[in-house]
Amino acid sequence: MANRLAAETSPYLLQHADNPVEWWPWRPEAFDEARRRDVPVLLSVGYASCHWCHVMARESFEDETVAAYLNAHFVPVKVDREERPDVDAVYMDAVQAATGQGGWPMTVFMTPDGEPFYFGTYFPPEPRSGMPSFGQLLEGVHTAWTDRRGEVAQVAAQITRELADRRLSYDAPGPPGAEDLAVAVSTLDGEFDAAHGGFGGAPKFPPAMALEFLLRHHARTGSADALRMVEATCEAMARGGIYDQLGGGFARYAVDATWTVPHFEKMLYDNALLGRVYTHLWRATGSVLARRVALETADFLVRELRTPEGGFASALDADSERPEGGGHAEGAFYVWTPEQLRAAGAAEAAAVYGVTETGTFEGGASVLRLPGAEPPAGLRERLLAARDGRPRPERDDKVVAAWNGLAIAALAETGACFDRSDLVAAATDAAELLARVHLGADGRLTRTSRDGRAGPSAGVLDDYGDVAEGFLTLYAVTGDRPWLDRAGTLLETVLTRFTGEDGALYDTADDAEELIRRPQDPTDGATPSGWTAAAGALLSYAAYTGSGRHRAAAERALGIVTALGPRAPRFIGWGLAVAEAALDGPREVAVVGPAHDPATAELHRRALTATAPGAVIALGEPDAPGAPPLLANRPLRDGRPTAYVCRGFVCSAPTTSPAELAAQLR
User: Where are the domains of the chain?
Assistant: First the structure.
């Protein structure tokens, strides 16, 4: 019999709808039930493509005995961290403070008032390596709640006070200057892995936002060191096992320092961010490898993550059924043995893709890499056809607003740079889904949807910042005014609902559900933080409209980059990229001319393929009604399509020459 999760839209919650555990979604009614029964709440947080979440579900949540005990003595609440990042953030702080580490699945025991008193992550079904079994943990917590209630209440109250007091003290320093950004580059160089690319050791995550910062820094200053780190990292990742050599797209991270063995889940946000980086690397250098990877990644997004409604699904699972049977295994869809290559009629692929008899992964299998020359014609297609016959990983097909905003920006720019109108169309379809399903008439966003139906959770700050970024990028590529206006609507909500009096930004709106504290984290993690995403969108919108209010808000927000960027650039890479745009202007480009004139299109393309950090681009007919301020009073020159470039209240001479426009934007 299905539990209370059966009516939810989250695929992760639906994965647990048939558990014998009587799960509740995160609702006030769950805590009311805990008060009525006088029992603690067990909060379990994970996400659909989380490998160890699946493991704990199979071992414990599907066990009838464990479930019976859990149901009798607790109110179990299940949360999808991707749907409720605010809940996840607040309680993850407690887990990290108590244990020194965090991760998913996250396991938290709390009072009916939401005050946490015991935490952890994965717990095994049997005692292991000094860790109690999950059953022992439940018994121990129940005993403490029953026999030592006063002690539990005291611990819970103390932890809650400490969490509530974790407020960011923000004096809004000015945005970073040239020296601050140069120091950040130097810090990154000190952490750079010269042998393998990337930063730090194992596990190694794709540093998309730091790479974007370095590309913008190189564009502004000509720094050879910045470009060197980007080129080495991008080539190492593209040739490594973290990149899907057959189907395109990047896995979440590598478990080693050499990018050889990935954790195989594929996330929408990683591929959106990295696809954009490779497009920008091509813009800077003309790299053939960067062009190939950018297009393959875009094609992967459209082919494997696009939903029937036009949005983009959140992730592909790391696990799948083994091709030969025998249950699920991580990476089963992607790895190869020499025998499997021979069976596919492609024995020669072993030398091309680094497949050996001993293997690089479990069971003697190898993750495909490309250590040498490009594969001979047809080989990749043969292997891909053979792989397509394997059982596929499951897909988390909920649409997350923020991550779709990142995908819209990536696909729109990639399509524009490589003359792929189909990619621009895919970006437009996703944007229209967000506008139709996620964006209300009041300017408020819903965070998720599934099958075209809006989910229950309010948008958080990164939804507003990333969707505004996507809409603004789509406006730059298409010239369609509604995308600029919708971005303005979202940013008005940022200014009125997410911004404190000191200019600090909060992750939740001022009228959002009240948790034990209002989450606020300016550091970039796997995606741009809401804080830095909003700063970037505010900066671009100010350049389009001339709004001093939006520019001032962006500069106040960028003060956090001044505080953190020089000493911790890996953790605020998008903030540093936005700061580069602010220091460069950003350049404002107006392209005016008849819509179907090839000369208009060529000027527009030159603007889109220029490397000026964060440049904003407006396209339109001369004297068109309702044109945005950037296009106002921009006549044709000698009756020909014309481009205008301005920067910091100073404008270059208008030009009809694509070459001259490119020179003005260098």
Answer: 4-164, 178-316+397-584, 334-389, 588-664
